Amino acid sequence: MTVLGSGEAADLVKAKSVLLESNGRHHHGPEALRAALVDLHDFWLSSRCAALGVGGEGSGTALAAVGALGRRELCPWSDLDLVLLYDGRTDVDALAEKLWYPLWDAGIGLDHSVRTPGQAVQIAATDLRAALGLLELRHVAGDATLTGKVRDAVRAAWRAGMRSRFDEIVDTTTDRWRRNGDVAHRTEPDLKNGHGGLRDVQLLDALATAQLVDRPGPDVVAARALLLDVRTELHRLSGRARDVLRAQEADDIATILEAGDRFDLARALSGAARAVAFAAEVGLRQARNALPRRGLAALRRPPVRRPLDSGVVEHAGEVGLARDASAAKDPALVLRVAATAARTGLPISAGTLSRLADTAPELRAPWPRTALAELLALLGTGKAAVAVVESLDRTGLWGRLFPEWGAVRDLPPRDRTHVWTVDRHLVEVCAEAARLTTRVARPDLLLVGALLHDIGKGRGGDHSVVGESLVRQIGERLGLREGDLVLLAAMVRHHLLLPHTATRRDPEDPATVSRVLETLREAVAPTGRGDADVALLLELLGALAEADSLGTGPGVWSPWRRTLIQGLAGRCLSALDGRPFVEPGPPDPAHREMVGAVTAAGEPQVRFAGDDDVASVTVALPDGRGVLSAVAGVLALHSLQVHTADVNVSDGVAVETFAVTPRFGGLPDPALVRSDLVRVRAGSLDLVQALARKERDYAPSTPEVERTAPPRVLWFDDEATGAVVLELRGTDRIGLLHHVTAALERTGVDLVWARVETLGASVVDSFGIGGSPDRSARSEIEKAVLTVAAGRGEARPTT
């Protein structure tokens, strides 16, 4: 450390570099690294102050740290937040320049200020961000008494002014949550600013300083340590100040922290963030209730306890227990409190949750009918149930009701189209299902099935098969009748039957309908009620498929997915009772007109419908090899992102319908799209070169390109059409559909049909291939598709 005695900031940079290199080779742990970084910077700053004549006690000058350095949470690339305090010194500006400029010249991130005690208190009273920083003021060098005086004055002013600024605290916090999302559920969480991140821990400390809440408990302390450790390693590995954890760093950080793989780390982070988020939400409510009452408010009567339900009251804007309520005597009390909270939109008080957690026993099997009724009432409230279930889960009450929940709690999704952890996904799907209860004859089974449809995940094996066994156990515990148990188990076992069949088979073919009905008849055979239960199960599965898609992530329940799934379910129901099937949605007579125009003139026809949000593009042109890749390429050339696509052939005319959104701007002129399509078909427009230029326009602006999961190809046999189904799963990019279809066409395959879906940043594209290619041919086809899907080469289309 002697090299730091000169006070040169370059020495500080060198010493920090040596420290990071040493930690990288020997790795003493992120906590030890933070402590060493704090000691290093404290030593340099105190040495620099001594060299500049910043005196000790009684000198009236002090250097203090706030922010990460003030909290002793300094990560490798955190900025330094410093405050130069003075009381009566006249040369303070010159002194400040001698302190700050060496740090700036060395490229060290610095946030600085110069304050008298009065100025510090005044800025803390007017600037919320500055106030939160000054609450963490820590002495570094100079007059420690001055630092202590300022810290005490700022904290006293913070407590005194809390009533007048509390609404600003709440608004600022909720706005930050809205901007940065949940740490627990984001695939790339903001560890610092997100809901459940480190800023929320600082918020709890600030509320405790105001003497409105207790200091954070051990669960929040442990969560803070994990969040800090991950952020420390994120800084060290990336070599920059980073707060958003991305997938490419997560595996390395998980290995360093001995936390398994990135999915294990994501699960640990989710649990930690949810503990912090719950504590922050409860802390804000408790703080509001604890605010001092002044003026006329102090003369008003305290809030009364308003009855809401049996044993449940409202008090001070929260749901609480009546004085004589007892969970030991009333087995439905926990669920009644939860259902009441969801129904009224009021949060459950922390004291009530704690009391119930201490006194509520496990419900004996079978549950009392009142308990099952309250569960259904809770689940039927929709979105309001999400926060209530979260509060029950954070206090151990939900796991007491559903012990099987532990395997999916905080379990990260393996599919990037999912934006929630598995347990949150289940609750979100249940909330979506609550909107669909009027569509089905058994809304109770829809709600319970939605809540438990993925309960088999996290245990190994096919989650649908594992879940089928689990829900039978759960259903028996809930007190369901045997016939309902069969239906519930069948819902979980076959909740993917309609989506998978509709996207991998031809839903219009009678063989596809027969296959679905045969599967469902076998599933409900034990009830002895035959096709009546098959029809009921179809109804439930259709609603569950919609809710499951809506609860997965934005864009998953696309118009074309709805058409496919509802169309398949409708055809199956029609086959059961002999009713004629009506296509979902209004028919489009323009398709027939376009086919007639193409037949008459031999030229492509293009029509747009909808708006700039989600539009439908229909293209009709003479059928032949290369038509799908040509149209897909022209759409990409006009900056249209394809979300779904369907291809049908009628009277020698291919009619292709796409759901698209513009990547920027508005929809192109259909005449320009048609013109480019004519040029491509005539060979005067080279799509490969044109798309290569377009892809360069969308290339990342930084050399650091995010690694993505490698594409996969799956094969299925389509009994309905005799075709073989190739399903591609990969990451979307400009022109991907064009390149994949061109690769298929180049291999000489006969494309019978196509079902294309873009789910967020991922694609799941299915192609019906005629001719039943053998294993060798499939291998060549797969190689060609994977090559272009991975971006390692582009196939020139056949025209």
TrEMBL record:
SMART domains: HDc. Residues 616-693 form the ACT domain. Its EC number is 2.7.7.59. CDD domains: NT_GlnE_GlnD_like. GO terms for molecular function: [protein-PII] uridylyltransferase activity; hydrolase activity. Signal peptide: none annotated. Keywords: Hydrolase, Magnesium, Multifunctional enzyme, Nucleotidyltransferase, Repeat, Transferase. Residues 422-547 form the HD domain. InterPro entries: ACT-like_dom_sf, ACT_dom, HD/PDEase_dom, HD_domain, NT_sf, PII_UdlTrfase/GS_AdlTrfase, UTase/UR. PANTHER family: BIFUNCTIONAL URIDYLYLTRANSFERASE/URIDYLYL-REMOVING ENZYME, BIFUNCTIONAL URIDYLYLTRANSFERASE_URIDYLYL-REMOVING ENZYME. This is [protein-PII] uridylyltransferase. It comes from Pseudonocardia alni (Amycolata alni).
